[in-house]
Structure formats: structure tokens, C-alpha cells
Amino acid sequence: MTSRLRIALQKSGRLSDDSLSLLLECGISLNPPKGGGSRLKTEALNFPLELLFLRDDDIPRYVADGVAHVGIVGENVVLEEAQALAVVERLGFSKCKLSLAVPRNSEIKEISGLQGKRIATSYPRILQEYLRREGISASIHQISGSVEIAPSIGLADAICDIVGSGSTLFSNGLVELHTVLRSEAVLVTSKHFAESKVSTEDSPEGILEKLLFRIQAVGRARAMKYILLNTPNEAISSIVELLPGVRSPTVIPLAREGWSSLHSVVEENQFWSVIEQLRKVGAEGILVLSIEKMIL
Ligand code: PRT
Ligand code: ZN
């Protein structure tokens, strides 16, 4: 009998749209197309995948208990819930920080100033572990929401909370003191599942391998751009050094004597510095395109 891989996703919140988009980019169509809504469970139409929609805080436990084989959740929640999980892939979305922050006019200017103070947070476990490592003893006030107002109502001297753009800190008169953790969405499985062997292609372990292959192809494509340019032939070797490509760039002669067209890939985060160097060595007519999938 063919089994299905069961994946836990956030029902509604900051992770939901990107999690579903990732599956769609992996060529997986859902029934109904966007899942979510009031549904707790749905199946993929063209891949052996069953989706469970949960609160993000519950995902680590469902995966650790084996109710779901895998889950997509913020690393911050994985660490706070401290279940026996293994991160199989970092997904590059829902990036944020868990930061200690204090009122702008606070006398606390560095983390040593937190000694003996009160800190409000929804992440008591991560904070406790951080303070222990730093040798700071402070009292932790666990609250489940609106952590940023704790100092202004006299509940705490500092907070430890998730920061995205930083505008919530700013509008509450708070400044960041220290980044405790950098987080992004991750694909997790239970440690037990991660260690189990792939028995057959259509076992949950085998299906996870296929899903991971697709997720990695999508991830690589997002990190790279396809680049085409014209170059005088004498500059080809310098350009090949700047754009080594997957194996090596494609070079095609142009109709104009002494010129070639060169095709390669370039990492998105090095893009602008590489473009400047390409122009310096004589590249012209540079075109840069998005890549949809990248299989090595
Ligand atoms: O209902 P459920 O329990 O499933 O969801 P939730 O409300 O607990 O979580 P949700 O949807 O708010 O966030 C899910 C995950 O997204 C978090 O666990 C993080 O991994 C990640 N993430 C990314 C963020 C943010 N960015 C973020 N900015 N989580 C929360 N925030 C908060 C932040 O604390 C602040 O209060 O958003 C507010 C705005 O942030 P600024 O800094 O952009 O102003
Ligand atoms: Zn939550």
C-alpha cells in the first residue's frame, strides 16, 4: 500500500502563505488549491502528501510525537518547545531575530546591566539558557503576548521578543540591546524519523527524500540568477573566473568577429559586486533572469 507523508503547517499566520507557496513551487497542488481556511486537514492532488493545519506552537510536539512526519515552523518555536526534533532544511523565509530590548532612556546599556532585573518574554526557555551561558541572574516574567508594552506598564525592565523590521520596538520606545537568536522557517522531523532508514520509495521516508529534492531545487533557484552577456573574446577567461557557473559557463560565438555570448549563473547576494567587475573587464549587454528550478 502506498503511504503518505504527513506535514504540519501553520494554519494561519506569518508562516502560512510562504509554506504553501513553497509546496506549490515544488509542483504540489492542493485540494482545495490553497488549503487553510477552516480546514484542519487536506491532501495534495499529485503528490503523496497529507497536510495538517495547526497553531505554530503545536507543530513541534505533533512532529515529535509522530502525528505528523514533518513540519514547517520557525526555529525560535523549535528551540523554545525543546522537543526531540531534527532540522532537515532551512527554508529562508520568515526571517526574524529574538532580541533583548530596553526602554530608550534605560540605564541598562549592555547585557551585564540585566543582572538582578526583570525581563518579560514569551520565550522563557531560550532566554533562561542564554542568561545561564552569560552568567546573568535575572527574573523572567513569562507573558504570552504584547510583550513590548511590559516596560511601559512597569512589569519589566527589559523584554526578550521577536523582532522583524524593528518598527514595533521603535514605536514602543524600545532599543535593541542584544540579538539572542537569528531565526527562519525550518523543515523539521522527529529525531526518530530522521534516523530511520528509507525502506522503499513510497515509504514516508522515501517520500520525504523526494520532497526534499524538490525543496532544494527551489531553494537553489531562489538563491541564483541566470546571467547572459556579450564579451570580447580576450575577456572570456577573466569572466569565467568571475562566473564559474554550475560546471562551467556556456560560450557561443556572436556573428560579429572577435565577440562571444557567455551564459552562466550568479549568486543573488553577490550579484551587484560581480556585475561591477564584469563591466570593468569589458562585458556588455548583460541580461539577468530569474531561475525557476535548479537541479544539480
Ligand atoms: O496563531 P499561531 O500561534 O499559529 O501564530 P503566532 O501568532 O504565534 O505566530 P506568527 O504567525 O505571528 O509568527 C510565526 C513565526 O513567524 C514566528 O514564530 C517567527 O518565527 C516568524 N516571524 C517573522 C515573526 C516576525 N517575523 C515578527 N515580526 N513573528 C512575530 N513577529 C512579531 C514581532 O514580535 C512584533 O510584535 O511581529 C510584530 C511586528 O514586528 P516588527 O519588528 O516588524 O515591528
Ligand atoms: Zn504561536
The class by helix and strand makeup works out as: alpha+beta
The backbone outline, from C-alpha atoms, is flat
Order of helices and strands: EHEEEHEHEEEHEEHEEHHEHEEHE
Helix content: 25-40%
Search tags:
single chain; 296 residues; alpha+beta; 7-stranded mixed sheet; 5-stranded mixed sheet; 9 helices; 27% helix; flat; binds phosphoribosyl ATP; binds zinc ion
How is this structure best described in words?
Helix content is 27%, strand content 32%. It is α+β, with helices and mostly antiparallel strands. The strands form 3 sheets. Strands 2-3-4-1-5-12-6 form a 7-stranded mixed sheet. A 5-stranded mixed sheet has the order 9-8-10-7-11. The longest helix is centred in the C-terminal third of the chain and has 20 residues, at 204-223. It is flat. Bound molecules: phosphoribosyl ATP (PRT) and zinc ion. Residues 55-57 line the site of zinc ion.
